[in-house]
Structure formats: C-alpha cells, structure tokens
Amino acid sequence: MKILFFTQDRWAFGSLHRSLCKEMHKNGIVADMIDYTVEYSPKEFELFMDTYDYFVTNPESIPPLMSYGVPTKRIFAIAHAEWDIYTAAKDLVHNITNWWDLHSYGAIS
User: Fold this and answer.
1) Could you tell me which residues come within 8 angstroms of residue 62 by beta carbon, excluding any fewer than 6 positions away?
2) For residues 25-61, b (16+ Cβ closer than 10 Å) or e, as one string?
3) Phi first, then psi: what are they for 93, rounded to 5°?
C-alpha cells in the first residue's frame, strides 16, 4: 500500500506526519507527505495519483484534492477536532454527496 499525506508540513502536523511516515515504512507501507499549502501542477498530481493508492488529509482539504482530480474513493479524511467537521461541512456539501463517498474517514483528538 502507498499512502500520500496531504497536510501542512510545519509545526506539529509536520512532526506528527513525518514520524507516522517513518513508522509506516517500518511496517512495509510506503507513506510520504506533501504540503497542502503548496500549489502543484496538474502533471505533478498525475504523477502522485499514478504513484500512491490513497491520499490522507483533513476534511477541509478534500475539495483541493478533488480539484486535482483525486477520486473520493481514494481519500481518507481525518478530523483532528470538532472544528474540522463543522468547518468542512459547508464546503463538502458542494463537492461530495456525503461522507460515504470517501474511502474512509475518522477523528482523533
């Protein structure tokens, strides 16, 4: 399995996801991270989609992934707080039918 984390790569998120990638690699899962604050070309995202099976992000970053052409069935959404759900809900309603369109979703705190 190959996973690409689409998240902020600074501060706590960056540290957490870098550590998570290392642990996943130890267990035979290819995991890398790209910064969601960086704009990528369509060609770059084509390469990401050809390379990785799944994309893991927070709920508010689902619309940008979809704008790059990532199918919802390849997106895992992880909420880090109640705020993530409320903030994303207004954007998601315009982009996906419901949370069931995603490959998977969860919440941690």
Assistant:
1) 72, 75, 77, 88, 91, 92, 95, 96, 102
2) eeeeeebbbbebeeebeeeebeebbeebebbbbbbbb
3) -60, -25
Place of tokens 């550590």: 19
Separation CA 50–CA 42 (nearest Å) = 12
Q: Distance between CA atoms of 78 and 22, rounded to whole angstroms?
A: 19
Q: Which residues contact 9 (CB under 8 A, 6 or more apart)?
A: 17, 18, 33, 34, 35
User: pLDDT, tens digit, for every residue of 41-60?
Assistant: 999 999 999 999 999 998 88
pTM of the predicted protein model: 0.83
Which CATH class name applies to 2-107? Answer: alpha beta
DSSP state of 73: G
